[in-house]
Write a structure and sequence with these properties.
Number of strands of chain B: 5
CATH class of chain C: Alpha Beta
Number of domains of chain C: 1
Number of domains of chain B: 1
Largest sheet of chain C: 5 strands, parallel
Shape of chain B: globular
Strand order of the largest sheet of chain C: 4-3-2-1-5
Strand content of chain C: 15-25%
Oligomer: heterohexamer
Distance between the termini of chain C: 16 Å
Radius of gyration of chain C: 12 Å
Chains: A alpha/beta (130), B alpha/beta (118), C alpha/beta (97)
CATH class of chain B: Alpha Beta
Distance between the termini of chain B: 23 Å
CATH superfamily of chain C: DsrEFH-like
Structural class of chain C: alpha/beta
CATH superfamily of chain B: DsrEFH-like
CATH architecture of chain B: 3-Layer(aba) Sandwich
Helix content of chain B: 25-40%
Largest interface: A-F, 32 and 32 residues
Number of helices of chain C: 3
Largest sheet of chain B: 5 strands, parallel
Number of helices of chain B: 4
CATH topology of chain B: Hypothetical Protein Ychn, Chain: A
Helix content of chain C: 25-40%
CATH architecture of chain C: 3-Layer(aba) Sandwich
Radius of gyration of chain B: 14 Å
Order of helices and strands of chain B: EHEHEHEHE
Low-confidence stretches of chain C: none
Strand order of the largest sheet of chain B: 4-3-2-1-5
Strand content of chain B: 15-25%
Shape of chain C: globular
CATH topology of chain C: Hypothetical Protein Ychn, Chain: A
Chain lengths: 130, 118, 97, 97, 118, 130
């Protein structure tokens, strides 16, 4: 089955990112396709490259990057949610003198249309939030 | 074409999350999906008249709610039981909405392709 | 003690039940919905032997279209300046999220 | 319909009351506390003419020290793989925050 | 020296907010303030034995709770009513805690310089 | 009276930052001293310089910077909350190749000790959260 996932909350204030990650792993192991993970609202903070949790803790941002490396799952950060909250798309960052490497590896920034496309094309869409 | 239900079950006020949630509904309409918006629980308060978010510098959601019709989103449902227990009468509603029972709303949702929440 | 509550949940009822005569409960943000006189209101559960003052933040009421006329009779209203006064006049301050 | 609930609040009771026989309620994260057999449990309020299956996510129970033996008898348990199966077998999926 | 009360009224699990909250309590102790930790409501669950956060890769809070004593934080209170309504018995508690009534806890808080919550 | 404020939530997911800002304004108008604003937990996201909300909306980050310019209030971002979530202190950023201008004007990054100092020195401490 084709499953899409949406993440609405920041990585460390709630368990959201953990639950979603475990769910995705289980879906992959069960042979399903995870079509896209869409980061919306405060979920966009999951993509901040500069995140540096203490060494004895799980690194949520890095875990997403590894998920992309291993499974090539499309990790999309909503452009308008991101821009409002301080994560700029590379070309915009260059133009306004912001951080042009803000996005962690494996993520891409795009519009809400990609969420709709995922919802329409997938058999299931599961939202995780705070 | 899928039927996509957007459930507003908490107040819309005081954060941009609500605004971003309605952006999703309008994007769904722009993708020619069948959009249903449901107000229930404390979400029913979102449809009350006389909201003045500008008093505290917040973005006024009323134009956004009014814009739903422009996007051809006319299926706006509100749960009768939620209105009753919150003492909200029909004439207090900001935009036209079908007042349906919990049971009827549940049936509509059961038939949907997906249910969004925030 | 000053209780500051920002959500419309069962917590409000529990907090009012616990408050004593020299305590104050201030409802802000979405908690202001609790002062509407209706079946859902957790503010109803105030008993007579419990006389803590209950305030609602009026700018948050205006933002949400909650009219004073629709509220329980014993509710008092403050603006942000009144909020500051409540903080100044009470200690400790306990925020409940 | 599959309801996914992640907080231990009154919402759980309302959701179970609304659910019908072919619905499933899955309790995850802090919502797993609701399945402990005790006075606070919103899961108690299940009536006999309401037979929606209620599941709790067992890894979240283990993380919180909630033992299966302490739970209501009618609760079923799933791990993340079971969570995925519930999603696959039910549509629509509604998350409640 | 102030008396600072740290109220844990929600579960400690599944987020670093809880961990950061206890960091504050330990910092307060390091600043030689009188620290009181209160567990009430669903926060009472935080003191239950047999927690295995590592099962889902979360940081185990048990060592942090055990470390409180090292920081000379020995005033740990738990509300009797919260334990009772949640069927938590004294022998299920992870660390030593004084079981007090809601009313007694309220009196202790009233006398505090500040009450922290998260 | 000397009042300190603590902010525990991100700027746009909740009303937290708005309520705190209005409270601080009212406290200043009433002649009180706002000794320090301490940003903790997800509150650290209030200090992201690259935040770019749409033009017709309040700009929460900029509003904090202006508060500092006008009233010189000490705006302190907790170093460990920030580092975990992707906002690095300048010297650390330079060392690890991160964004060394991540912090908006008027804020500074420091340890939890400054929160304790504020609580001890102030007559009141008010926490705003989600």
């Amino acid at each position: 089955m084709k499953i899409s996932v949406q993440i609405n909350a920041s990585p460390y204030q709630h368990q959201t990112a953990d639950t979603a990650w475990h769910f995705i792993q289980a879906a992959l192991v069960s042979g399903h396709e995870v079509y896209r993970v869409f980061f919306y609202h405060d979920g966009i903070y999951n993509a901040l490259r500069d995140s540096r949790p203490p060494g004895d803790e799980r690194d949520i941002v890095k875990r997403w990057s590894e998920l992309y490396r291993q499974s090539n799952i499309d990790l999309v950060v909503c452009v308008s949610s991101a821009q409002r909250r301080g994560l700029l798309e590379q070309s915009v960052a260059k133009k306004v003198g912001g951080y042009d490497k803000a996005l962690a590896d494996g993520f891409r920034i795009a519009g809400l249309g990609l969420l709709m496309e995922a919802v329409i094309d997938s058999d299931r869409h599961v939202t995780f939030g705070d | 074409m899928k039927t996509l239900v957007f459930v507003i079950d908490k107040p819309l006020h005081g954060n941009v999350r609500a605004q971003e949630f309605l952006d999703m509904a309008m994007m769904a309409a722009a993708f020619d999906q069948r959009v249903l918006i449901v107000f229930e629980g404390d979400g029913a308060y979102a449809l009350m008249k006389n909201q003045h978010a500008d008093v505290i510098g917040l973005k006024n959601m009323i134009p956004v709610l009014n814009a739903l019709a422009i996007y051809d989103i006319n299926d706006v449902l509100i749960e009768r039981e939620s209105m009753k227990s919150r003492a909200i009468s029909e004439d207090q509603l900001l935009i036209p909405a079908d007042i349906l029972s919990r049971c009827d709303i549940k049936s509509r949702m059961n038939a949907a392709g997906h249910v969004f929440s925030f | 003690m000053l209780f500051i509550i920002n959500k419309n949940s069962a917590v409000i009822g529990g907090c009012i039940a616990k408050a004593s005569a020299d305590d104050v409960v201030l409802l802000i943000e979405d908690a202001v919905f609790a002062v509407i006189e209706c079946g859902e209101s957790p503010v109803m559960r105030r008993s007579d032997n419990n006389t803590a003052a209950i305030y609602a933040l009026s700018p948050d009421m205006q933002a949400r279209g909650v009219r004073e006329a629709a509220c329980h009779k014993h509710i008092k209203f403050v603006d942000y300046t009144g909020f500051v006064e409540l903080v100044v006049n009470h200690n400790p301050v306990r925020s409940i999220f």
